[in-house]
C-alpha cells in the first residue's frame, strides 16, 4: 500500500485520539465497568479540582475516590488537570460548570473564595477537601446555599502539626535545622501555618526569635509579609537555621543550587511543610540528615522511613476524604447537612503521626483502597438521610487511628 | 585577540560581578561542598537544552516540544530500568535513543504535514505529554532510594563527560559532516541550497532527531538528579524546561560571533549557572530571582535588537572625542569593524 499524506494524517489522528482518550479517562467512570453499583439511583457527576496531580498523597486520594467510592456509590468522578494557579482554577471551574457537574470537591486552594462564588452562581454544590477556610472566609461564605463546607485539618491543626514536628526533634536533642516551606511563595495557607508552627516551637527557647518575633501570631505575620522564609531573620543562641528551600521550578539551576546549598549546610533535620521526602530524598541519601514531613501514608514514604531518610511523618490517611464526599453527595440528593443557623460545615480532622517504621506500617495496613477505614458502611448512614449536624460532627471528630482502626 | 576578548568578555564580566556581589554580602560563589557538581550539572543541562533549542530556531523552526521530549524519553528509560532492575547505563542508553526517536518523529510530522513548525510542535507537545501521562497513569516515576540510578547526576566527572561528549558530538555533526554543511547552506540560503540538490526535508528531520537526542540527555540528568520524574504534566506543563535555555542561548549566540556558536552555548550556560549559584549564595527569594532573570533576558534582547544603533552612537562619541583632541576624522565611511556572521539565535 502506498503511504500517502492522507494515510499518515489519518494514522496520526487516530494515534493522538487514542492516547488523548487514555490520558483523559483516568479519572472517569469509563474505566470502571462496575461503577454506579450503589443504591441504583441517578449517577451523580462530581468534579474534583486538584493542585497536585502526581504526588503519592494526591494519587492515594484519587484512587480512593475513583476505585473505591465510585464502585460503591452512584457517582462518577471527573478530575481536573494539575492546577498551578488561581487562573487555572477558574478555567477548570468554568469547564466543570459547562460539563454539568452536580458538585465540585476542591483540593486546590489558590483562590477558594473565587471557586465558592462561581459554584454558588452556577447552583453547583461545592466543598473543600483536606483543608478548611480561614475564619474570615468562613464568615463570608457560611450562609451560601451551595457551599457544603470543609472537612480537614484546620489552620490551627496545621500550626500544631508543624509545632509538634519541630518539638519532636528538639526533644531528641537536634539543634541544626533546615526548613522546606513548599508552597509558601504561593501563599498556601496550610504550608505557611505549618512553617510558622515549626518556628514557634524553636522560639520557645528564650534566645530564639524569627524576624524579632517569638509568638506564633507575630511569626505568622512576618512570614505573610515576606511571602517566604529568610534565613537571616532567624536568631538564636541554641539553634541554627542552616538553610531554606521552597517550591518554584525544579528544573531551574538556581533552585537546584539552593537545594544543594541546604543539604551542604548539614542540618540535623530538614523540617518539611509537605512533600519533603519527594523533594529532598535523593539529595539526602547517604547523609545523616533526617527528614520530618507532613504528608501522607503511602508506600513511598514507608520505604523512606524504612531506609532511615524519613524519621517523622504527620500524615493524612488515604480515605480521610470520605466524610466530605458523604456530605457533598447527601447535599446533591437533597439532604444537606447544615450547622446551627443553616450554616456550612467547618469540621476538623487531624493527622496520624508515625515516628517508627512499625507504627507507619500499622497505619498503612489499616487504611487501604480495598478496605478503607471510611468504607461504604461507615459513610452510607450520612448520605440521603436527614442526619443531624451534631451526629455528623461527632462522626468526623473521631478521626484518630485508635478511634477508627485501633 | 579581538576574538578571544569578544568570546570571554561576557563570562568573565559575569564571574567578576557575581564574585564581587557575593564577597560584598559575605558569601561565596562556590561556598558549598557540591559547588563543582552544581556547576558541571547546571552547565550540562543548560548547554544541551540551549543547543537543542538553537538547532531548530536557527532554521526558523520554533520547537515547543523539547521539554515533553525530555520528560517522555526519561519516563520510558526510567520505567524500563526500574522494571528490569538494570542500571543507569541501560536507562541512559534508552533515554537518549528514545529522545532521538521522538525528535525524528517530531521532524517527520513537521515535514509531512507542512504546517507551521510552531503549531506542529504545540501538537507534538500535547501528544508526548499525553503519552507520558498514559504510561504512568499521571503518577511520578520515582526511584528516590535507588542509589544506582541517582548516582549519575551526583558525579562531577560524569557531568563533565556529558558536557565534553555533547559538545564533541554537536561540533562533529554540525561543523565536520556533510549533514552540517547542508544544514548551514539551508540556513544561509534555502532556495539556492535546494536548487543545488540539498534535501532539506531529510536535513530537517535529522536536525529534529539530534535535538531530541540532546533533550533525552537532559531528561536523563534531570531524572537522575531528583530521583523522580513528574510525568503528570499536561496542557504544556513541560514547556518550562525549554524556557530555562533562552537567556543562555541568546548569550551563546552573541558569544558565538567571536568564536564557534557551540562554544558560545557552553559559555552562555556557564554564565547562567554562575547566576544560579549566586542567587543561592545570596539567599535571594524566588520572586527576586524570577524578576532578575526576566530583566536580564529582556535587557539582553534589547541590546541585541539595538546594537547597530548603539555602535553608531559609540562611533559618533568616539569621533567627537578624536576631534576635540586634535585627531583627523576617518577618511573612509563608517564600516562596522566586526566581520560578524550572526547566528539565528539572536534577537533579530
TrEMBL record, chain A:
<protein>
    <recommendedName>
        <fullName>Sugar ABC transporter substrate-binding protein</fullName>
    </recommendedName>
</protein>
<keyword id="KW-0732">Signal</keyword>
<feature type="signal peptide">
    <location>
        <begin position="1"/>
        <end position="29"/>
    </location>
</feature>
<dbReference type="InterPro" id="IPR028082">
    <property type="entry name" value="Peripla_BP_I"/>
</dbReference>
TrEMBL record, chain B:
<dbReference type="Pfam" id="PF02653">
    <property type="entry name" value="BPD_transp_2"/>
</dbReference>
<feature type="transmembrane region" description="Helical">
    <location>
        <begin position="234"/>
        <end position="256"/>
    </location>
</feature>
<keyword id="KW-1133">Transmembrane helix</keyword>
<dbReference type="InterPro" id="IPR001851">
    <property type="entry name" value="ABC_transp_permease"/>
</dbReference>
<feature type="transmembrane region" description="Helical">
    <location>
        <begin position="263"/>
        <end position="282"/>
    </location>
</feature>
<feature type="transmembrane region" description="Helical">
    <location>
        <begin position="288"/>
        <end position="306"/>
    </location>
</feature>
<keyword id="KW-0472">Membrane</keyword>
<dbReference type="GO" id="GO:0005886">
    <property type="term" value="C:plasma membrane"/>
</dbReference>
<feature type="transmembrane region" description="Helical">
    <location>
        <begin position="205"/>
        <end position="228"/>
    </location>
</feature>
<keyword id="KW-1003">Cell membrane</keyword>
<feature type="transmembrane region" description="Helical">
    <location>
        <begin position="157"/>
        <end position="174"/>
    </location>
</feature>
<keyword id="KW-0812">Transmembrane</keyword>
<feature type="transmembrane region" description="Helical">
    <location>
        <begin position="36"/>
        <end position="57"/>
    </location>
</feature>
<dbReference type="GO" id="GO:0022857">
    <property type="term" value="F:transmembrane transporter activity"/>
</dbReference>
<feature type="transmembrane region" description="Helical">
    <location>
        <begin position="88"/>
        <end position="113"/>
    </location>
</feature>
<protein>
    <recommendedName>
        <fullName>Sugar ABC transporter permease</fullName>
    </recommendedName>
</protein>
<feature type="transmembrane region" description="Helical">
    <location>
        <begin position="125"/>
        <end position="145"/>
    </location>
</feature>
<feature type="region of interest" description="Disordered">
    <location>
        <begin position="323"/>
        <end position="348"/>
    </location>
</feature>
<feature type="transmembrane region" description="Helical">
    <location>
        <begin position="64"/>
        <end position="82"/>
    </location>
</feature>
